[in-house]
Automatic annotation (TrEMBL):
Keywords: ATP-binding, Glutathione biosynthesis, Ligase, Nucleotide-binding
Family: Belongs to the glutamate--cysteine ligase type 1 family. Type 1 subfamily.
Gene Ontology MF terms in the entry: ligase activity
Superkingdom in the source lineage: Bacteria
Uppermost EC category: ligase
Species, as recorded: Castellaniella daejeonensis
Name this polypeptide is given: Glutamate--cysteine ligase
Alphabetized InterPro entries for the sequence: Gln_synth/guanido_kin_cat_dom, Glu_cys_ligase, Glut_cys_ligase
PANTHER family: GLUTAMATE--CYSTEINE LIGASE
Transmembrane segments: none
This protein's pathway: Sulfur metabolism; glutathione biosynthesis; glutathione from L-cysteine and L-glutamate: step 1/2
EC number: 6.3.2.2
Keyword ATP-binding listed: yes
Catalysis performed (reactions): L-cysteine + L-glutamate + ATP = gamma-L-glutamyl-L-cysteine + ADP + phosphate + H(+)
Length: 524
């Protein structure tokens, strides 16, 4: 019996471990006006404070909402809560639909894209200035791309079965890093199965300077004919400076050491920008990364942080608490941007990544082959006969996808055995259909819809978004649920005011304290 089979047997014998799995979602989406143009209005007060509301905040732009669920025990509860949050936004801000697509709506001139504002507290200003730095470094347009972040955790006791180590924290760290390595090897599969951003409006390309690299399929719409996710391709969240970081997923210590160097090593182009313009801060520092979260990746090890804590420091001190999958496109056919079926497949996929053996990446621990596969599938995943690289050998995407889905099947069955239904196997079977027929993938379906309906990408997405918005508004919320969200919004505004009133040091001193919280360079 293989090690993975032994682990599955142990998990099957302890169903409380599977029931204790938690998953959560952070879903981004632009507020737009009736014509699908980026909303120029401030964050709606009825939604509470973007700084302190735990369910509704903003990401890069003032117009880019981020809706956040609690960690929940199953896919149905997860998507239901995310849909509730969407319905609350629709009820309290009905005139500005959420753009239900990863690639942006029509954008104004870059200077007119508003950067998120979190109030005058030191904490709020730190978040705002960090985003100003992103604007200077990468431009505002790239920061308006949206996605779904999927958070996943196993209970502490599960790592006693799945990882070796001298302490619970060490076992947890080793186990989650093994999950991340297996995820990295197979993340291309998620791009093929769920990538839903093969097209984009011309205005985005004109802003970003990529017009010549894509195929024009109608006056305002461009695409890569075989692409699955422009968002995760080099048109989206990519940065050549960061590509040289060579982060290692073999162990947490090396990973955090390399992140530490990135957030403490100056970069000449950013030094030339400086940290201040006209007496105001424009970025937090001139290093390769201003802060840890600036590193763009398809998955992150995570630990909850408090005010003025640094993610890298708390990872070293308290270990990994959960992982955050960051590569999922918004599903344009789902009112909340993700379907429960997708959540069920992700749970089986991530459990597979956690339980299966996960060899270390070769020195220096950099997973270049896996990253190349991911990039290739994002750009050309539906190309007939596409070949990927596996341990230096060419393998067809179709064959590898079939094999991977076969290996995930025992985990879908394991989850179904303790959920009382066949939902995870049904989710897996839906992915098998996509592996057999590329035309069944979301990226192909979207391009087919544009062709068959004779619509521009912008107009099709606006119609989808409006339809979802009408559904979410009509769906409404039970009175007690609506009252609870209203109360949370009011409380968050009061909490922001209290934080602002409690500040006792200058913002410059606060920034210095924040940088000092990083601590010394780990010896690695």
């Amino acid at each position: 019996m293989s090690l993975a089979s032994e682990r599955r047997v142990h998990l099957a014998a302890q169903p409380e471990l599977l029931r204790a799995i938690r998953r959560g979602i952070e879903k981004e989406g632009l507020r737009v006006d009736a014509s699908g143009n980026l909303a120029a209005t401030p964050h709606p007060p009825a939604l509470g404070s973007a700084l302190t509301n735990p369910r509704i905040t903003t990401d890069y732009s003032e117009s880019l909402l981020e809706l956040i669920t609690r960690p929940l025990p199953d896919a149905d509860a997860l998507v239901a809560e995310l849909t509730d949050i969407h319905s609350f936004v629709a009820l309290r801000n009905p005139g500005e639909p959420i753009w239900n697509q990863s690639m942006p709506a029509h954008l104004p001139p870059e200077a007119d894209i508003p950067v998120a504002w979190y109030g005058t507290s030191n904490t709020g200003m730190l978040k705002h200035v960090y985003r100003l730095g992103l604007a200077w470094r990468y431009g505002k347009v790239m920061q308006c791309i949206a996605g779904v972040h999927y958070n996943f955790s196993l209970p502490e006791a599960a790592w006693d079965l799945l990882a070796d180590g001298d302490s619970p924290q060490e076992r947890r760290n080793i186990g989650y890093m093994a999950l991340i390595r297996n995820f990295t090897r197979h993340a291309w599969l998620l791009m093929y199965l769920f990538g839903a951003s093969p097209a984009v409006s011309r205005s985005f390309l004109q802003h970003a300077g990529y017009e010549a690299r894509l195929t024009q399929i109608s006056p305002d719409t461009y695409c890569m004919p075989w692409a699955t996710s422009l968002r995760m391709s080099d048109l989206g969240y990519k940065n050549p400076i960061q590509s040289d970081l060579q982060l290692c997923y073999n162990d947490l210590g090396t990973f955090t050491a390399r992140i530490h160097r990135a957030v403490t090593t100056p970069w000449p182009a950013y030094e030339a920008m400086g940290t201040h313009r006209d007496g105001r801060r424009i970025q937090l520092n001139t290093n390769i990364l201003q802060i840890e979260n600036e590193y763009y990746s398809s998955i992150r090890p995570k630990q909850i942080t408090g005010r003025c804590e640094r993610p890298n420091t708390v990872l070293r001190q308290r270990g990994i608490q959960y992982i955050e999958v960051r590569c999922m496109d918004i599903d344009p056919w789902a009112p909340a941007g993700i379907a429960a079926e997708t959540s069920r497949f992700l749970d089986a996929f991530l459990l597979y990544c956690a339980v299966e053996e996960s060899p270390l990446f070769p020195p220096p621990g950099f997973c270049q082959e896996s990253q190349d596969n991911f990039a290739l599938v994002s750009r050309e995943g539906r190309r007939p006969g596409l070949l990927l690289q596996r341990e230096g050998c060419a393998v067809s995407l179709r064959d590898w996808a079939d094999e991977a889905l076969d290996r995930i099947e025992p985990y879908a069955r394991l989850l179904d055995a303790h959920s009382g239904d066949g939902g995870h196997m049904a989710a897996l079977d839906a992915q098998r259909a996509k592996a057999r027929d590329p035309q069944a993938t979301p990226s192909a379906r979207l391009l087919a819809a544009l062709r068959d309906e004779g619509l521009e990408f912008h107009d099709w997405t606006l119609a989808q978004s409006r339809g979802h918005w009408d559904f979410l508004h009509a769906r409404g919320l039970p009175p007690d649920t609506l009252a609870a969200y209203d109360a949370q919004a009011r409380e968050s505004i009061a909490e922001q005011a209290a934080i602002e009133a409690a500040d006792t040091i200058s913002f410059e001193d606060y920034v210095a304290r924040f940088h000092a919280a990083l601590g010394p360079d780990p010896v690695r």
